Amino acid sequence: MKQTVLKIHSSDSVLVALIDLEPGERVQDEGNSILVTEAIPAKHKLAIHAFAPGDSITMYGVLVGKAKHAIPAGGRLTTFNVQHATNSYDLHAASYQWTPPAVDQWKNQTFMGYHRSDGSVGTANYWLVIPLVFCENRNIQVLEEALVNDLGYGRKKTYQRQAQELKALVQAGRSVEEVLQADLQSAEQSVSGQLKLFPNVDGVKFLMHDGGCGGTRQDAQALCGMLAGYITHPNVAGATVLSLGCQNAQVAMLQEEIQKRNPHFDKPLFVLEQQTVGTEESLISQALRQTFAGLMQANSAVRQPAPLSKLVIGLECGGSDGFSGISANPAVGHASDLMVALGGTVILSEFPELCGVEQELCDRAVDAETATRFRELMNIYAQRAKEAGSGFDMNPSPGNIRDGLITDAMKSAGASKKGGSSPVVAVLDYPEPVRKPGLNLLCTPGNDVESTTAEVASGATIVLFTTGLGTPTGNPIAPVIKISSNTALANRMPDIIDINTGTVIDGDETIQQAGERILEHIIRVANGDLEIAAVRHGQDDFIPWKRGVSL
Q1: Theoretical Cys-Cys bridge with 244: which of 58, 135, 327, 388, CB 3.0 to 4.6 Å?
Q2: Would you say 233 and 542 are in contact if contact means Cβ atoms under 8 Å apart?
Q3: β-strands 269-273, 304-307: how paired?
């Protein structure tokens, strides 16, 4: 008989419903029979015992909330009867002991990547076209129109055919109802059949943004640091940069940030300032000549074998549900541990979603300095959120809440599972680059696109992205592998999901087996053997983080 509820940790005071439960049903907890007192949708939580107002509620073995009102045994936990709460945390003497998982079967495995002169290895080979300030966005669009299709990187706009069908119905005098009921032809997206002029270049990417001027000097510095992270990224062969000339984000600031990341930077880099060059035509013509010259150099790169230790994996989630923390995130956590055991690097970000698990992460830090920096960055971020009239407790989205993640601590306890169990080797403040193999914590918002953008800026060459509700999120230069927490989502949105870990909920696979399957998928993507959904759809989400509060 299929399991109907799950107790995640032995000390938990709640159970997770794995299926919809009806009033009057009974569920079992360690030999005790609990009467379900109200309808409990799948993914939501029910009380193991009665809670009085003020009682602590534990899940994943940590405090995730307190009862606002009385909750009977077998009752459903909701935003009405539970409020966010976490335990305080402190620094302890470093004594964390970690037993790495067995990785013998992958120890001599390699992937075919692009080797850069600084010793890093990319999983792709892109050329970037970047504005230093939003004033140049239109010129970036002009370059995109000139370059993408003619170089063979365009995609067929198959939805245009559907629009033409509807246009014909309107011209034929059909009614509104007939238009709404029209049976349109399939709109499957496919890559243009035109051959690429530069076959070893995966694409030309155009990173438009709304920053660079009008904000604080700190915003400009952070933007330049983040853009420098993309320019120096292992997945990037070179870049064309457009500057207006008078903005806060000056060319010298960008060059300074590039030097911080790579003092021996030697990739092709072309920088043009419109106020110096003059007319738009002169600017665009010069940018086109230089970009073609750069692409000719980029095309000389070829994939060569590299050890798995050269991979840098970003860990991300978005559209989380009540199953994310018990299937997809722990499975990614096991894959993270496998990567660390192989000498690789993983990045766990989204600091608002580490609220409530700070003590565990502090205890896993390799030294007091690392733990102290994590605590300081968390405290500063939390204080800024409060000063803006918000707080970490307001992080869960309406979709999270509808699917059972009713407090930030509950969401965080599950989200942090993506980081596995390995030691924390470094804590980074946005937009710092990763420099140490192992588990790195990166201060970013919980916003999934801002956080994914930041992880890639810090060096992630592949991103593992878990979701329970479904999101198409991608990145311009790093493959974002989408991992479903439940089988229903994988079946409903197969066009955006790459891996289904709902098999864990279904009882068909263990966390460890799912994690190993994820690692095998990573290797195939790193080789360039497998095109994932976000790349196939051209999902190039890119949002730099302004250091104001963004939850």
Answers
A1: 135
A2: no
A3: unpaired
